[in-house]
Every structure is written in C-alpha cells, then in structure tokens.
Design brief:
By secondary structure, the chain is α+β, with helices and mostly antiparallel strands.
C-alpha cells in the first residue's frame, strides 16, 4: 500500500510539472572593429509555444556594398543571414524568451526590411544594422531601447540595452565559438530565406 501511494504521488508530481514548455529565444549579437567593420544581428532559436516547426536562423541588415555613397545618404541594403564562421567570431550579448506574438512580430520585421518584401533602404546614420536590431529588441518586449549616441556602436548599444533592464534579459557575453556548442541539438528551419553572407567580413567589402 505504501509503495502504491509513493508511486501515485510521483505520478501526480510528474503530471503537475508537465513537459517543459517550448519557446523561441532571441539572442542579440555584435561584432566589433579589428579585421571587420562593426555589425549587429540577432538569432532566433526554439519552437513556438503553440507548436509547429522549430526555428534556427540569424538575421542582420547591411548595405549591399561598401562604397563612398554610404557616407552621403541612402543606398541599397538587404537582410542577410550571417555565415557560421562569422557567428563563431562574434559575441552573443544577451537573450530573451519570446511569446509567440513577439516571435511573429520579429518575423514581420524581417519581411518589412527584406529587399523582396519590404523596404531595404540602408542609411549609415538612420537605418543601419543597429537600427534593425533596436526594432527587434522593441518587438521582443524590451522597453528601453533608444540610445541615439550608440546607433553606430553595436556592442555599446547592446550593453546599454541590457544594462538598462537586466531583469528582462539573460546576460551571456560569450563568443559564438564558446556559446553555440552549449545549445541543445535542434533541427530548426529558416522561416524567412535571405542571402547567406559574412557581413563586413573585411574592409572594402560590405558592412
């Protein structure tokens, strides 16, 4: 009888706990000066709470080419998916778990800035990679995202966002090479196709 009661109690605990709820997590990344130009991007990974296809994709926004024209106004831009080696050499600054509504809003952002479905105008001072990431942070539910003096400084910007609301994010501060191997296996899809490239991989190529 005692053994039966123990088993019943354990079963109730298991039922009460239930499965770990799935969710999509967004991580915010930056890459600084060195052999590259500064850049910011974000990664989406996980499964929506409502179920469906898991996601595993990163998106950034950049000028299509680096020419003197970017110093004087608008140029053609595009949403890109960073190459794995580029992510490995970048730094993940913090993460946040998304609701399904927030996840959907961020996918809408990607479409809105995508050259095939929206406005891909790039402006070094007004509509750059940090601006794109700022809007993703806003749609992820972060409320303090405006730091005008840091809009061309990806790492400084992301640190300011995290520092202004530490209770709303999980600080990571690791290189991609350190962080990515810690993630559980996931057969994730790319929800919105975009060119795979190494944004600003070297001076004179792309930012």
């Amino acid at each position: 009888m005692r053994r039966w009661l123990l088993r019943a109690a354990l079963l109730l605990v298991a039922v009460g706990a239930g499965p770990v709820q799935a969710a999509v997590t967004i991580t915010f990344w930056s890459r600084d000066f060195g052999n590259t130009f500064p850049h910011a991007f974000f990664m989406l990974r996980g499964t929506p709470d409502a179920g469906g296809t898991p996601v595993d994709a990163a998106y950034g926004f950049t000028a299509k080419s680096l020419t003197p024209a970017i110093l004087f106004g608008n140029v053609a831009g595009r949403v890109e998916r960073p190459k794995p080696f580029y992510i490995n050499g970048s730094h993940v600054r913090f993460s946040r778990t998304l609701t399904d509504a927030q996840y959907g809003a961020i996918l809408s952002l990607v479409r809105e800035w995508h050259e095939e479905t929206g406005d891909a105008t790039y402006n070094l001072n007004k509509r750059n990679c940090v601006t794109f990431v700022r809007e993703a942070a806003r749609r992820a539910g972060l409320t303090i995202v405006d730091f005008p003096k840091l809009m061309k400084k990806p790492t400084g910007y992301l640190r300011a966002v995290a520092g202004a609301q530490p209770q709303a994010v999980t600080i990571i501060d690791k290189t991609g090479k350190e962080y990515l191997p810690t993630l559980p296996p996931l057969s994730g899809a790319v929800p919105i196709e975009a060119p795979v490239a190494a944004p600003a991989d070297r001076p004179g190529k792309r930012r």
